[in-house]
Amino acid sequence: MASVLQSIGALLQIGDRPSRGPSHSFGKAHLIMAFMTVGESGTIGRQMLAARSGLTEGPARTIIKKLREDGYLDINASGCRLTKVGERAYKILCSRLTSIIPLEGSDLTIGLRQVGLAVRGGGRSVQGGLEQRDSAIKLGASGATTFVFKDGKFTIPGGSADCEKEFPSKAWPALRKELRPKNGDAVVVAGAQDETTAKLGALTAALTLF
Predict the structure, then answer these.
(1) Hey, which of 123, 147, 156, 196 has its CA 20 to 30 A from 75?
(2) Contact 145, 194 (CB under 8 A)
């Protein structure tokens, strides 16, 4: 667990260091989103990476530069790809955080477009979901709901002991099939007007559980 937290912490610290030149605003969720997008894509062009990460040109350029300077990223004529150091960090990150999946017809939170992801072992850090909801809304999401998978059921600490039974939804089968939650995992569902913002909301909520 220590190596996982150290690896994630090292990535997040990249965004905390000041840059030369104009200041560009981006959150830690944007940084991790960009990093994960490169890992999932293999090789990806800068403009496509920016679009999928919810970034404008300036912040995208800054993130790419910082990831490259710290040895996580290579850039060539084909686009951006992870170095061996980046691949190791990506593998470690994926051991704690699942891919973000779209949820069609979900009504588990607020927002036109909803997505879900799981944080392995993150259930121990969930108090009631308010911290995760507030962090997602601060980044532009409409809402976020955090569940803890316990004894094979989706629960809300201090609330429902069986959310599937109490709150029927088309999203549950997808969450089970795609995320394959295990006991002790936290499952975050975030919603927004567009899918990219929903993904960033889910990711920033998930980061509060590390």
Answers:
(1) 196
(2) no
